[in-house]
Amino acid sequence: MSADLEKLVREWEEEDRELRELRRRSADWRYIESLPPRVREAIELYIETGDLWLAAKLAGMSEDEFNEVRIKAGILW
Predict the structure, then answer these.
(1) Model confidence over 32-75: pLDDT tens digits?
(2) Residue 76: pLDDT band by 50, 70, 90 thresholds?
(3) Whether 54 contacts 12, CB under 8 Å
(4) pTM
(5) What b-and-e string marks burial along 9-45, b requiring 16 or more CB atoms within 10 Å of the CB?
(6) What is the 3-class SS of the chain, one letter each residue?
(7) What's the angle, vertex CA 77, arms to CA 70 and CA 38, rounded to 5?
(8) Where are the chain's structural domains?
C-alpha cells in the first residue's frame, strides 16, 4: 500500500472513531434501553457502525422509520 493510501485509511479510521464516539455520547441510553430488543440492537449497531441501511433492516423498519427512532434516541450523526 502506498504511503498516501495508508495516510488516507488512517484518516478515515480516525474519522470513524470520532463519529462513533459522538454517537455514543449523544445517545439517550435510557430511551434506547426502553426500546424492543430488535430495535435496541439496531440502534446499537448504528451507533457502532453508522450504517443506517443495515440498522434499519435489522430493526425491520424503513430507513425513514428508523431515522425517527434514531432522532428520538438523540443520535444526530
Answers:
(1) 999 999 999 999 999 999 999 999 999 999 999 999 999 999 99
(2) confident
(3) no
(4) 0.86
(5) eeeeeeeeeeeeeebeeebeeeebeebeeebbebbbb
(6) CCHHHHHHHHHHHHHHHHHHHHHHHHCCHHHHHHCCHHHHHHHHHHHHHCCHHHHHHHHCCCHHHHHHHHHHCCCCC
(7) 30
(8) 3-72
